[in-house]
């Protein structure tokens, strides 16, 4: 344990030589993968407006940004860059353990008018006690990605799939018409994404929206778990981790996948040969006229408290995140879905997408943003998630009489692990 | 202190200083941490919080159970296998011995990340060669990664593959230190090869095998890489989560250093207890 810390801080010390101190208007950013590339794609437009501010994006990889930020905050902020990328579900962990490590953005120009540009579900984790620790960046409105050709062969019209029972019936038809395929895949090995997506759609989550009580055994969550087991038992969803889902997509073995809309880029770049064969439809609901909107994943940008160029750093965040120009550039270049509500009015969003068979997927997907119910990550997210996954595995294997008993047990375990009370 | 010693200690000082800073202090510090609530800001002294949770935490008992299952099944199987491999390697009938010795030892040299990736591919439920073999002889395919029992078997196979050869080489060295005239005398007395193995080889090898067992026990108590990489962080649903993984998850995913420290001390205490038990069981009869 001490070794990991040691190596993290040594590499941090090496890294600390480059950023911040050099010039008065350089801004350094830690980010990862496509997110880092997307940020770089906004620099051209940004430097037209602010030619004097030099922005450097370091692509360190997702785990590295988390580990290094953690180590740096534990060391009093030493070596942090000006801007750090923080994933929303991890965000509260940082604010609650290291509140002094980040700058209150409201003091820099993140006014309440600007905050209102973003949907509530993106802001719940980023603002605490009137302090805005980070500004929302991308989000993951959930959608079902499907193979048009497989559905057509089975005579299934996705517009008729309104609830999960329709999805099961359609799945049986699709799998009968296309031997060797599966309707959809879920990561029952190392993730809980299906539960989190459907539960969020139904307005339920591990914790209440104020983060003060445990709600995992509420009726909507129980109904969600029951339905997932029903789908698994019907054989229309099988277990597959992230990589295996991509393999199945490319090999034509999956008829659909459900994920946050950022999965668009993964399908498009992972299976370029299948252009025109994929489409998108809204996620089914538990009831006939139930909600169809949920969120999975997404990040935000925070300014470190040790930054010497807070104003310049805010100018960049302001440009990249609160303007259509910045957000839509990142949507175009790397498929990062804007949290910014006004992005739906951008001409690009309304354009039909050739890869998706000419469907206007972005306006379809972004239209769900205002309907998404907040789902609080809380500092206890990873504990609760691990407990949920263990319960899910045991429930699938017949270890509980029913879903209610399973989630009651999960709720009790989360209570032990976090000290939070069960919701009434 | 005589001046001679003082000079010696002066030379040792840089090492002792580093040892104290990076070994002794963290050990004390994490002991103190285990009594603190590290999930509030600032940290608070709350002695019963972490230890109380440890006693009641199903995740801890699950990790303990998984670790002990590996300990009870994998370690004896591997040591037995290593002994057989060592005896075969020691056979005078064997040609090209250095080649085999290297082949058995090679898995230790292979990087953990690389072999984990290969195991994942081989055991993939849909595309893996292992399931192809299983179905070709008429059995149903096994979903290695989403069935907790199958995942545990997979971890045991992987760890055994990696470490059996290493132990075999150590045991081989022990075999070669047994003087040949003991066997010669036994052969003259018409003792069968099997009897020789049971009554000469095994008793003389006992200290070596014990050494391997203690090493393997400590290794298993700290088992981390295989369940982290092969079964996706101890999946499915904690089915292969070991104590080492639980410690990592609490410390570096949940940022709960206090609880992680309590787990760390428990692991260390268990490793010591089991090693002592090992030595006691195999003690020399008085």
UniProtKB/TrEMBL annotation, chain A:
Keyword Signal among UniProt keywords: yes
Annotated localization: Periplasm
Signal peptide coordinates: 1-22
UniProt organism field: Paramesorhizobium deserti
UniProt entry tagged with the keyword Iron: no
GO CC term, one of those recorded: periplasmic space
Pfam families xref list: SBP_bac_1
Family: Belongs to the bacterial solute-binding protein 1 family.
UniProt cross-references to PANTHER family, sorted A to Z: ARABINOSE-BINDING PROTEIN-RELATED (PTHR43649), DIACETYLCHITOBIOSE BINDING PROTEIN DASA (PTHR43649:SF12)
CDD domains: PBP2_TMBP_like
This protein's name: ABC transporter substrate-binding protein
Keywords: Periplasm, Signal
Record-linked Gene3D superfamilies: Periplasmic binding protein-like II
TrEMBL record, chain B:
CDD domains hit by this protein: TM_PBP2
Domain ABC transmembrane type-1: 64-278
Location of the protein in the cell: Cell membrane
Domain of life from the UniProt record: Bacteria
Membrane-topology descriptor: Multi-pass membrane protein
Entry's transmembrane regions: 7-28, 63-90, 102-123, 143-164, 204-224, 257-281
This protein's GO CC annotations: plasma membrane
One BP term from GO: transmembrane transport
Pfam families named in the record: BPD_transp_1
Entry keyword Nuclease: no
Family: Belongs to the binding-protein-dependent transport system permease family.
This protein's name: Lactose ABC transporter permease
């Amino acid at each position: 344990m001490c070794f990991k810390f040691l190596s993290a801080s040594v590499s941090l010390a090496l890294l600390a030589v480059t950023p911040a101190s050099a010039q008065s208007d350089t801004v350094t950013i830690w980010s990862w993968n496509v997110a880092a590339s997307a940020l770089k794609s906004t620099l051209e437009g940004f430097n037209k407006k602010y030619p004097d501010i030099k922005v450097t994006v370091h692509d360190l990889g997702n785990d590295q940004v988390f580990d290094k930020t953690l180590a740096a905050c534990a060391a009093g902020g030493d070596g942090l860059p000006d801007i750090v990328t923080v994933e929303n579900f991890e965000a509260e962990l940082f604010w609650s353990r290291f509140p002094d490590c980040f700058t209150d953005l409201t003091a820099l120009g993140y006014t309440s008018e600007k905050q209102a540009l973003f949907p509530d579900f993106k802001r719940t984790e980023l603002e605490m006690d009137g302090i805005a620790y980070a500004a929302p960046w991308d989000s993951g409105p959930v959608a079902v990605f499907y193979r048009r050709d497989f559905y057509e062969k089975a005579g299934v019209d996705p517009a008729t799939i309104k609830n999960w029972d329709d999805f099961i019936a359609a799945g049986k038809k699709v799998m009968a018409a296309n031997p060797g395929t599966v309707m959809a895949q879920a990561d029952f090995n190392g993730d809980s994404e299906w539960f989190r997506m459907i539960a969020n759609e139904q307005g339920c989550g591990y914790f209440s929206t104020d983060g003060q009580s445990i709600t995992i055994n509420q009726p909507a969550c129980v109904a969600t778990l029951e339905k997932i087991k029903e789908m698994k038992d019907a054989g229309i969803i099988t277990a597959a981790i992230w990589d295996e889902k991509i393999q199945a997509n490319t090999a034509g073995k999956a008829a659909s996948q459900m994920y946050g809309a950022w999965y668009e880029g993964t399908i498009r770049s992972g299976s370029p040969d299948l252009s025109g064969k994929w489409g998108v439809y809204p996620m089914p609901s538990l009831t006939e006229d139930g909600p169809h909107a949920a969120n999975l994943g997404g990040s935000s940008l925070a300014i470190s408290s040790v930054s010497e160029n807070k104003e310049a750093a805010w100018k960049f965040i302001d440009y990249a995140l609160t303007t259509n120009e910045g957000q839509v550039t990142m949507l175009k270049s790397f498929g990062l879905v804007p949290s910014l509500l006004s992005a739906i009015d951008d001409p690009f969003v309304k354009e039909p997408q050739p890869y998706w068979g000419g469907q206007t997927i972005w306006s379809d997907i972004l239209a769900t943003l205002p309907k998404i119910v907040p789902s609080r990550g809380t500092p206890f997210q990873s504990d609760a998630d691990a407990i949920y996954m263990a319960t899910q595995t045991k429930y699938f294997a017949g270890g509980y009489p029913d879903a209610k008993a399973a989630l009651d047990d999960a709720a009790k375990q989360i209570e032990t692990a976090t000290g939070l009370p069960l919701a009434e | 202190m005589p001046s001679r010693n003082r000079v010696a200690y002066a030379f040792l000082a840089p090492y002792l200083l580093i040892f104290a800073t990076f070994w002794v202090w963290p050990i004390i510090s994490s002991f103190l941490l285990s009594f603190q609530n590290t999930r509030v800001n600032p940290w608070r002294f709350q002695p019963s919080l972490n230890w109380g949770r440890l006693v009641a935490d199903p995740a801890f008992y699950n990790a303990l159970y998984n670790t002990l299952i590996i300990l009870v099944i994998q370690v004896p199987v591997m040591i037995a296998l290593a002994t057989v491999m060592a005896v075969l390697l020691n056979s005078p009938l064997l040609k090209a011995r250095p080649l085999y010795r290297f082949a058995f030892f090679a898995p230790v040299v292979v990087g953990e990340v690389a072999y984990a990736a290969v195991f994942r591919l081989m055991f993939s439920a849909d595309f893996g060669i292992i399931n192809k073999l299983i179905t070709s002889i008429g059995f149903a395919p096994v979903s290695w990664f989403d069935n907790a029992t199958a995942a545990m078997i997979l971890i045991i196979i992987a760890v055994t593959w990696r470490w059996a050869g290493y132990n075999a080489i150590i045991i081989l060295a022990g075999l070669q230190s047994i003087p040949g005239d003991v066997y010669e005398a036994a052969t003259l007395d018409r003792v069968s090869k099997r009897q020789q193995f049971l009554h000469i080889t095994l008793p003389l090898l006992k200290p070596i095998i014990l050494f391997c067992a203690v090493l393997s026990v400590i290794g298993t108590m700290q088992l981390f890489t295989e369940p982290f990489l092969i079964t996706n962080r101890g999946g499915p649903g904690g089915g292969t989560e070991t104590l080492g993984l639980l410690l990592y998850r609490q410390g570096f995913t949940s940022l709960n250093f206090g609880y992680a420290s309590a787990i760390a001390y428990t692991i260390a205490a268990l490793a010591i207890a089991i090693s002592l038990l090992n030595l006691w069981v195999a003690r020399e009869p008085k």
